[in-house]
Amino acid sequence: MLVRRIARPLLASSFIYGGADTLRNPKTRVPGAQPVVDTITATADQQLPVQVPRDVEQWVKIDAGVKVVAGSLFALGKLPRLSALALAGSIVPTTLAGHRFWEHEDPDERFAQLAHLLKNAGLLGGLLIAAVDTEGRPSVGYRAKRAAKLAAKATEESYEKASKRAAKAQKQAEKKAKKAKR
Fold it and tell me: What is the pTM of this model?
């Protein structure tokens, strides 16, 4: 559909640009990402059997790479649901790291950060819609349920036909048995 061909690149453009900019200069994002990475790695270390790397610049680069790759795939319409989901997963820590409006005293700066947070929330909403968009085709779940119903119906019909044939064969056998007794 034409709308998807226009909307996907528009939605992906900010991710591709931001990811490429971050890959060129990741050090500017490290201070903002530090508290988020610390929280995530501390939680992961408690729950996972392996230790998670704590290099904040590495995490910033990984996040930027995800944005560039998933954004490009999404813009091109390749694996759109998966790439939208990857972008949605990437925007959450980015928003928490970059737009911490509650930490700003200056009302103008607080408003600007809140506006960016809300903009990212809107992008997240669009990505979630894109992640579940089946492009008018039935979902895998629907197709599986439908196939199961059709298989059950075909099995029932086959069983009924076999039962009728068995009953008919039994009647014929009884008739032959009666004739044989005479």
Answer: 0.71
